[in-house]
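Sanity check. The docking grid for zinc ion depends on where the pocket ends up, so I'm generating a full predicted complex first rather than guessing from homology. Inputs follow.
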Amino acid sequence: METSIGISSPTSPRVSARELAAMDFRFRSGRRSLDLAATLGGRHRRPIERLGGPGDLARWFGEAGLLAGPPPVDDDRLILARELREAIYRCARSVIGGAAPAPGDVAVLNAHAAVPPLVPVLDAATRAITWTAPDLVAAALSEVARDAVDLLGGPQAERIRECAGDGCSLLFVDVSGAGRRRWCAMGGCGNLEKVRRHRRRSGPERIAGERPGESIERPEGEAFR
Ligand SMILES: [Zn+2]
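Predicted complex below; grid placement will be based on this.
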């Protein structure tokens, strides 16, 4: 039985804690640009759109550490951000597959990267740094695009991986010494894989529970896409 939390109303169905957790932003790729790509999860099976509205993008900028406060985001900016996100994703997938990224996608990256980035401002009294720009959203997207350019054109490009977790499409940079990291998170997809292996060893009666339509208790890793 999944636990449900009380955000239901007569017009909206109850949302399970697991469904809510699936909407959390992922920051485990090691790179800002791939973290943006992860705002569309479960790409190979059931896509999870985590940038459903302009407010989600504003929140992502905050959680990504790009901006202290949520900037004004409108629908047009959201569309631009999603376009950049998909260009980053496709370029990274091409590089993983040993192919050249599509020129159109690279052009999207370069266009965003050409916008002046965020400017640091030092406070004289507190020495706190804040980041500013005439156009905060465009500048924040420029930061993301510049990260993508740096990643795809630099030595870490060879270390871009896709999580091996079942149903997980998260891309990450493998900075392990051996270069054999397989999962976006050991406590998530890695753990889920361990549970699956254990079930396979445990006999057919357990495996039967994994047939479509049958109820089976899923480990927390299910929400790690
Ligand atoms: Zn994963």
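Relevant for the grid: The chain has a mean pLDDT of 86.
Also worth noting: The beta strands are 40-41, 48-49, 119-122, 129-132, 160-162, 171-173.
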